[in-house]
Structure prediction request, 348 residues.
Amino acid sequence: MAISKSLKGVTVSIIINGSTPKEYEAPMDETKHDHPNKTVLRYIEAISGTNYSILIEVSPGYKLKSSLKFVVQIDGWTLPTSPLFLRTGQNSPWNRRIDGNEHVDKNGRKWNKPFKFSALNIVDVHDKDRIKRDASASKHIGEIRVTVTRRQAKAEVQYRSWGMDRNANLEIAEKAVKGQTLSHGTELGEAVRSREQTRFFNSTAQRGSHDPPAVFIFRYRSREALEAEHIIARAPSPDILHGLSDQEIRRMARERLSGNQLGEANIKKEGAADTGTWRKFTNDDETLTIDLTGNEPVEKREPKAPKMTIDLRNTGEFDNVDTVNQRGYLFPGDENEDGNGDDHSFFF
Prediction:
């Protein structure tokens, strides 16, 4: 039952299988409501193929003198008739239950097509116009909205309606619902004859009343979608020991402990670990190789080759090698017999 703080004495509920489902609040709702201070938002779980009803109640706690009109919208579609609470001299409770889309045929017979939760069919399409249309429609899919307005009731009228049924489109483009966790929409069931007589009145807006005194919103989702939106907590993982006796649990513990002692337990290895049968270590002076193929590890140390340092400065001297004093020429000699000139001598 959703209760409005801005309009005392008025409540709205969703009835599923004759009872009120559990309602969940949205702790992190980021929706930009038109009237945030007067909006009540609740989430409920939807089960495919289940009929539901909308119950509106006005208790003696309602103290305003105006009548109230309840505009019902389902998935963005407005019902053709709106319940009207008539303010009279009596302060008695009033309620109205809406089971579906009502209409009266030309013979005065009343029919009702019940509301039914139906799963959405998310499809992969690439038509940009289709995606744009579905994105606009998806803003209110999975939502039941009841907007309350203050009215002045006028004369009673005879109501007739034909061809006002809603054709629900439950196939939506996947790209149109990106970032949303939609799961269900509302379909209308087969029409059934209704014996209840409903009175219809004309009404006008209450003078000085512009904004609605209350707005009730119910968003219905599958349980998986409610968990994905963090509206409800995910179900805990099943206990693998559930149903086992104490003896079986102790036996499993002994087997696991025995496996660890014998080295049978699976040990996670690092991705870069070397699983070969030898290990090699190096330093600046020698190379150490450990052979693990035998019964015992065998170390093999091999000295590294000596380093040779060559001084390429203009002194013409070499470290650790015999000095070569012979001057060579890369090009035919000039008049001074220096093929590269006196200023550019090369040694080799």
